Structure formats: C-alpha cells, structure tokens
Amino acid sequence: MDKQNLHTENLINTDGESRQVELLVTPLTNAGLKTNIPMRRIWAMPSKWTFTIKPIRELIFKYVKDPSNWVDPFAGENSPAEITNDLNPDRPAKFHLDALEFLQQQTYAEGVLYDPPYSFTQAKECYDSYGKELFVEHDKKPTMMNYWSSCKNEIARIVKPGGIVISFGWNTNGMGKGRNFEIVEILIVPHGGDKNDTIVTVERKLAGLFDPQ
Ligand SMILES: C[S@@+](CC[C@H](N)C(=O)[O-])C[C@H]1O[C@@H](n2cnc3c(N)ncnc32)[C@H](O)[C@@H]1O
Prior knowledge:
Elements: E1 6-12, E2 18-30, E3 33-41, H1 54-63, E4 70-72, E5 83-84, H2 99-105, E6 109-114, H3 120-126, H4 147-158, E7 159-169, E8 181-189, E9 198-205
Parallel strand pairs: 3-8, 4-5, 4-6, 6-7
Antiparallel strand pairs: 1-2, 2-3, 7-9, 8-9
Helix pairs in contact: 2-4
C-alpha cells in the first residue's frame, strides 16, 4: 500500500477511550472530479440495529457531539438524535409517522441520521415488516416511485448549510452532489461470509442551493 495515502487519526470511542486508526485517503472519482475522500474498512459483527455496531457507533459520536436538533426519521432502537421518528409504535421514538410525512413537518436540522431498511427482505425479517411496502415494484405501486428521493429532498431542505447527513446502507449514493452535498468520509464495514457490507457515507451540505430564504 502506498504510505503516502495513509494518515493516522485519533478516534474517541463511546467509553471516552482514544485509539489511533490509519485512514486510507484514496483518490475517488466524484462526478468526474478527482477528490481525496478518506475511506476506512473495519470488520465488525453485523446487527439489525446498525448503531450498535462498534466502528459505526464510534463514527456517529465523532459527528453527533450534541444531539440537539439532530433528526432521525428511521430511528429504530438506538438513535442518539434529539428528534426521532419510527413508524413502528413499539420503537422508543418521539414520533411514529411515516418517515416522509415526518420529514415534511420538520423545519431545521443540525444534522440527520438516515438509516432506513435496506431491502424488502430486511424490512420483513428484521423490522416486523415495517417499510416493506417501500420496496414493491414501481409499476405496481407508482406512489412509491419517488419515495426515497422525496425523503432526501426534504432532508436537503431542513439541514443547515455546513450540516452533516450520515447515510447507512449498501451503497455510497447518500444525498449527492445534485442536492449540494459533498462527501466528507466513507466507512465500509464488512461482516464476512456472504453478508453485504454496511456502508456509511458522511456528507456535508454546502452553502447555497437549498438554503432557507
Ligand atoms: C435500519 S432500522 C434503523 C436502526 C437504527 N438505526 C438502530 O441502530 O437502532 C430501520 C427502521 O425504520 C423503521 N421504518 C420502516 N419503515 C418506515 C417508514 N416508512 N417510516 C418510518 N420508519 C420506518 C423500522 O421500524 C426500523 O426500526
């Protein structure tokens, strides 16, 4: 490995312990532009409760130093955000609305944690079927066609310029340049066997487009 592409960083874990990790700063092509995006790959056991996975939890607390005005529309069981929502009334969230409806009601966010179910099967088997209708084929349920992009548009509307969105899933699409976000860092968490990696994409909203009037 090219040593020039490695630099070390101190990470503070949830118990307040500090440890040094090596960051691979790798040139990635981002919409045709070559940019240096810090990217790490750390193995961990899988969990349907994403935020209990150790390297992911540590990354979240690097950004969520104060939970005030952090918003989480798919909060599950472990969100550190102040303003939490989960459609399932059995989850310990403040609101129990559909995520899009919840986001439409919000006006401001310091940052957003975006961790929806990743597939029909996952929604069915891990989350008591909540969210599985979001994965039906578009031609069968046209109302769902724009669901995910509508959620992301609402997030782009409410996050302050300079605010952070952390997206979890099986890709690095995140909010994207089209919504005026730049990638800050990427964490890949492989789980071994034939399991999908969990990919965490941290993005910052640039000033300009989508600023509140
Ligand atoms: C991947 S889990 C979130 C896990 C959470 N980050 C944690 O670590 O505890 C996704 C959550 O989205 C909820 N959900 C599914 N469909 C939803 C919808 N349409 N609106 C709001 N929440 C939904 C599920 O009940 C589930 O708790």
